[in-house]
Design brief:
Helices cover about 30% and strands about 20% of the residues. The protein has about 775 residues and is an alpha/beta fold. The chain has three domains: about 1-170, Chitobiase, domain 2 (2-Layer Sandwich); about 195-435, TIM Barrel, CATH 3.20.20; about 600-770, Galactose-binding domain-like (Jelly Rolls, Sandwich). The strands form nine sheets. A seven-stranded parallel beta sheet has the order 11-19-18-17-16-15-12, with helices on one face. The chain has a six-stranded mixed beta sheet with strand order 4-3-5-7-6-10, with helices on one face. Strands 22, 24, 26, 27, 29 and 31 form a six-stranded antiparallel beta sheet that branches. Helix 13 links the parallel strand 18 and strand 19. Helix 13 (about 390-400) runs parallel beside helix 14 and helix 14 packs across helix 15. The termini are far apart.
Length: about 775
């Protein structure tokens, strides 16, 4: 195999993809002087109908373009009325195809047929991209491969091509999509036969789009869920409200008229579990199995009857995952069934029998089910997530249960082994019966070259480590969860030794070396994340104790952060979280920690005793974290309880007394609280309303409190920039005040405010190190 980049492909072809493609018939620089031979003949032509359609033109031009990479003289593209040769590759609805009963009707949207008739070869395709997919399948049979969006095309070294045997291929999964980064590239998507997102007018979580709370929340709160006796406009819709139904249908009709080609329109619940508890909605749910999906299906049916020529999709997700009873589903309703709860150490039919039952129950009601599957660790998509061995069995299981559409969710950003994952998923969705291990091995050989055997060893060793002891692999997990399993210190050391061999194997090839180094990035970030939670001074810890007794970051760990950030930027990684924490954020996060720890010797509060009126999450022992000299990482906002350097108070104010040990002169007190950096209306982490400080010499008589007010409105609907605040300092300046004791009060919201999705639930405040200077 030789490789050629997309830009080089265009240069040697003398073409632009901006319009229709016509290959000039002249010798091109870089093309072999040998003549192209197909089935032993050198005079093949590509034959298209006299009035070729857009897809027939594209398919024929793509075939000619790629064959031009093998020889200075690729087959000509001719119209059927101009064809007078003996050896033709016939594309689309030619008379030759019609004469030999090679019709497109049975191929549905994306299927194709190959048929050999004498020395002629016919390709016919379905109504959408079947013909183009057939051409790419033909090219793959010749040895061409497209492994990644930014990867040079793999070109076969042979120019003696053999046409494949007759085949009719209609994909068992009609709609196939994934949002891995690779799938953004249209050429890659077509090569690997992904379905187009253009067929969706609205995709998911659309209640808030069709009946926006910012438009109707104040004037018509009755349109929204009744929760504990009060309407909450940022939750779900009141599905039995007839006026709301009219508003939704009117808005949806307008959207459909503006985009009439779109086939699927989602009318689906928002991403929360606060369904309406009003009398009519509750009665409807009781009638249909006593599950919330009853009112959802009833409502979706009602909408679907308004648009009989469109497919109305709705979610069976979270609180609506269990199928209802005593109700039929309209034929133009699509059920989008989600398995967000399933763990990934084994296939879902082994780890989640409840989901298996739900799939079977929905299958009895609907023949149009789309599975929304989850394939990465969303809290940290760059981190190692050894679930490759489950993807093939899962897809086959879905298909065996009459699923005809799949959305394999990942992240729109680059992720751990993203190129391999995207390629494997695409191939298996097209052919669920394909051998997943063969696909993996083929990809590794083509993408990593001589390092392939070591990349395979790395994948296998991590899978074995995962499965050798009981472990639940959650999609919202964290590398710190696996410290006693597949990310133990011993295992990480083994993985690094494997990568050392992989890098050595391709050290003379800069492109392959970079690919191997990029694949190593997950190990680097896992090492960093885990090290931060190991006791200072212990093996593997991010920190050590210096000769003066202060906790400091290890130089090698600081260098590892710098190395990771630098390499990750070069690899094109945008974020380390699903919705938040850019690489610049991540870097600044550590710069903040390093800077503050550098000033620890100036702190009068280091290792001082702190007492608390309330018990923090995890127990009173955690109060010691407030003066241990280690600062919390704001990148851990989503699961701050996994970062041992934050101290949390749930549903309670924070009331502390810091004892400096003796009367001292102080000039400032500094404390920072953690804030949510995405989904501020969902997570129950919120900044305190204010913080007050009082100082005392004897611990009995305290001076008048000094109050520091939180300047940030926490409501993201009124203050969208709140998600740009990773934490907020509540500091005070003092003028050489004498004291020994400092009383600190942080005013919690206690319960989440009325505007919050989780209104009424306990509010959390997370506090960092107390620094007194």
């Amino acid at each position: 195999m030789k490789k050629i980049s997309r830009s080089d492909f265009l240069k040697i072809s003398g073409l632009s993809f901006g319009g229709m493609l016509m290959l000039p018939h002249h010798s091109c620089s870089g093309i072999s002087n040998k003549k192209l031979t197909i089935n032993g003949y050198r005079n093949y032509q590509i034959v298209i109908p006299a009035n070729a359609s857009k897809i027939e033109l594209e398919a024929s031009n793509q075939l000619q373009l790629h064959l031009s990479l093998l020889s200075k003289q690729a087959p000509n593209v001719v119209k059927v009325n101009e064809y007078n040769g003996k050896n033709g590759i016939f594309i689309g609805q030619t008379n030759h195809a019609k004469k030999n009963n090679v019709a497109a009707d049975a191929l549905e949207e994306d299927g194709y047929v190959f048929k050999n008739i004498g020395d002629d070869f016919l390709i016919q395709g379905g109504s959408e991209k079947g013909l183009l997919f057939g051409v790419y399948s033909l090219l793959e049979s010749f040895g061409f491969r497209k492994y990644a969006a930014d990867d040079p095309l793999d070109i076969p070294s042979t120019i003696n091509l053999e046409l494949p045997n007759d085949i009719i291929k209609v994909p068992k999964i009609n709609y196939r999509t994934t949002n891995y980064y690779e799938g953004r590239d249209s050429e890659y998507a077509d090569w690997n036969k992904l379905s187009s997102s253009d067929s969706w007018g609205l995709f998911v979580h659309t209640f808030e789009v069709l009946v926006p709370p910012e438009k109707y929340g104040k004037s018509n709160p009755e349109y929204y869920s009744l929760i504990n006796g009060e309407r909450n406009v940022v939750t779900q819709l009141c599905l039995t409200n007839p006026d709301m139904f009219d508003v939704l249908v009117k808005d949806l009709r307008k959207r459909i008229n503006e985009n009439p080609k779109a086939k699927y329109w989602s009318v689906s619940q928002n991403d929360n579990d606060k369904y309406c508890q009003c009398g009519p909605c509750t009665k409807l749910n009781k009638k249909h199995g006593n599950v919330p999906s009853g009112s959802i299906v009833w409502f979706t049916n009602k909408v679907a009857r308004e648009f009989p020529d469109k497919i109305i999709s709705t979610l069976a997700y979270w609180y609506t995952r269990v199928a209802p009873k005593n109700i039929e589903i309209e034929p133009n309703v699509n059920i989008m069934l989600c398995n967000i709860e399933s763990t990934r150490e084994k296939p879902v039919f082994d780890t989640d029998p409840a989901f298996t039952k739900d799939l079977q129950e929905w299958g009895k009601m609907s023949k149009d089910i789309l599975i929304w599957d989850y394939n990465i660790q969303f809290a940290n998509p760059i981190s190692p997530f050894p679930n490759l061995h489950t993807i093939g069995p899962n897809i086959k299981f879905y298909r065996e249960n009459n699923v005809n559409a799949l959305f394999m969710q990942a992240t729109g950003n680059k992720a751990e082994l993203g190129q391999l994952r995207s390629y494997l998923i695409s191939k298996l969705m097209w052919d669920p019966d394909a051998d997943d291990n063969e696909i993996i091995d083929e990809f590794l050989a083509g993408y990593y070259g001589k390092a392939a055997e070591y990349m395979r060893e790395y994948i296998d060793r991590m899978r074995e480590a995962l499965t050798e002891t009981p472990f639940r692999l959650f999609i919202f997990g964290d590398p710190r969860d696996a410290i006693n399993n597949y990310l133990s210190a011993e295992k990480i050391s083994l993985y690094h030794s494997i990568f050392d061999k992989a890098e050595k194997a391709v050290k003379d090839n800069s492109q392959l070396l970079k690919r191997v180094q990029d694949a190593r990035l997950p190990l680097l970030i896992a090492t960093i994340q885990i090290a931060g939670q190991i006791k200072p001074g212990d093996d593997g810890s991010f920190y050590e104790i210096n000769n003066s007794g202060y906790v400091i970051p290890k130089p090698e760990m600081k260098n590892l952060v710098i190395e990771f950030v630098g390499r990750a930027k070069k690899a094109g990684i945008a974020r380390i979280g699903e919705r938040a924490i850019t690489l610049d954020d991540y870097n600044y996060n550590f710069e903040r920690i390093f800077s503050k720890m550098k000033d620890t010797p100036k702190s009068k509060s280091y290792k001082c005793n702190v007492s608390s009126d309330g018990v923090p999450e995890g127990g009173m022992e955690n109060i010691k974290r407030l003066t241990n000299g280690i600062f919390g990482a704001f990148e851990s906002w989503r699961f701050p309880y996994k970062d041992k350097n934050w101290v949390a108070f749930k549903g309670d104010h924070m009331d502390l007394v810091l004892d400096l040990g003796e009367i001292q002169n102080i000039n400032s007190v500094e404390i920072e609280f953690l804030n949510v950096q995405a989904q501020a209306n969902w997570h129950q982490l919120i900044l305190p309303k204010h913080v007050t400080y009082s100082i005392s010499k004897d611990g009995s008589t305290f001076e008048k409190p000094i109050k520091v007010v939180n300047p940030h409105n926490p409501n993201p609907a009124e203050n969208p920039d709140i998600t740009k605040v990773p934490f907020h300092p509540f500091n005070i300046e003092l003028e050489n005040k004498e004291c020994r004791y400092i009383k600190i009060h942080a005013e919690s919201h206690i319960k989440m405010p009325a505007w919050h999705i989780n209104a009424g639930r306990p509010a959390f405040i997370y506090v960092d190190e107390i620094v007194v200077k």
